[in-house]
Amino acid sequence: MTSQTFFPVSQDHCKDFGKISVPKRLLFGPGPSNAHPDVLKALALPPVGHLDPFYVGLMSEVQELLRYAWQTDNRLTLPMSGTGSAAMEATIANSVEPGDKVLVAVKGYFGHRLVDMAGRYKAEVQTIDKKWGEAFTLDEIEAGLIKFRPAILAMVHAETSTGVCQPMKGIGDLCKKYDCLLLLDTVTSLGGVELFIDEWGVDLAYSCSQKGLSCPPGLGPFTISPRAEAKLNSRNGKVPNWYLDVSLLNKYWGSDRVYHHTAPVNMNFAIREALRLLSEEGLENSWNRHLDNAQMLWEGLENLGIELVVDKPLRLPTLTTVLIPNGVDGKAFASHLLNNHAIEIGVGLGDLAGKVWRIGLMGYNSTSKNVDKILNIFETELPKF
Ligand SMILES: Cc1ncc(COP(=O)(O)O)c(C=O)c1O
Predict the structure, then answer these.
(1) Which of 8, 104, 153, 305 sits at a 20 to 30 Å CA gap from 136?
(2) Phi and psi at residue 375, in whole multiples of 5°?
(3) pTM over cut 0.85
(4) What are the boundaries of each domain within the chain?
(5) Distance between CA 30 and CA 344 in Å, rounded?
(6) Pocket around ligand 1: residues whose beta carbon is below 6 Å from it?
(7) How far apart, in whole angstroms, are the C-alpha atoms of residue 96 and residue 224?
(8) With 0-12 CB in 10 A as exposed, 13-18 as middle and 19+ as buried, what is 85?
(9) Which fold has domain 37-279?
């Protein structure tokens, strides 16, 4: 019992709220995508303590499964408690020291986010830039490395704002040649697009749970190579972000199992199941499924007379950018699909705002049945706009 009789914030605002009920949606936007039903079941399991021996065993399984999904042997591979942006910030916070030269290859919205973050950690940030909808050639990357001689080259593999997949072969070798680390955003590629962290010479990478892994948002997979670990270990000062400092986090995720923060245990149940499903399907099968369904979507849209933004060889199988036809109100069409058909598609960001729709087919959602649904809805509804 409280002795206080007056509550400054009244209960009146809350007491009529009913039990939560969430509308069913088909999430064909840039993410989140629909979670796999088995992943949702795992999420709803009763929590255990974050130092419970069962949970500690599960943590190791999540790490092993993540190494498979990323094709890496990196010891320090773990899901950050937070969304993709937290893992993104972790790569920067742990690798950048004040005054370090960081070169960001910007070809869309998330490249700009990397620029912003690296600047906040007091890097000397330089950029090379490409028109939204295009990718960098090896020659352009090499010219940037020669010109700026950075300590870190940061770039986005799968640019969700444009639907471009950056060809990666050879970039890691260039980074070794010019003695810099390679930092890669794999938020919209992990699980859905060919990705070989070790073979490609990627030193720092991050991703998310809510796209190709068919899991809800809430975790940000993170990995760091021995080369980048060496840079971390020779820092002059502490990592300027306590929560994301992997040397501290490794005391929990590594053999010591010392408390760092209260892990979101249910999210880790969920990602463990999501990654298990991916390994059961097999990476190559998953990549092929995403590509086959994307190709079906591209062909179907083009048959309807709809133009795609990205040239075919650079198209991202997980996310397709579609030019809004002249005279059509893109936002109104997207709202119509959501409100009347329970289908979410994305609208444009940054340079492509108002010009494109973004259609995601990621993880559990990448099926031929879903492609048919999208094509049917475009065929029947678009002429009304
Ligand atoms: C390429 C890319 N990088 C980073 C992010 C940030 O991830 P999150 O929104 O999970 O924080 C996103 C989100 O969509 C993304 O598409």
Answers:
(1) 305
(2) -65, -40
(3) yes
(4) 26-32+282-384, 37-279
(5) 9
(6) 30-31, 83-85, 88, 110, 156, 160, 185, 187-188, 208, 217
(7) 13
(8) middle
(9) Aspartate Aminotransferase; domain 2 (3.40.640)
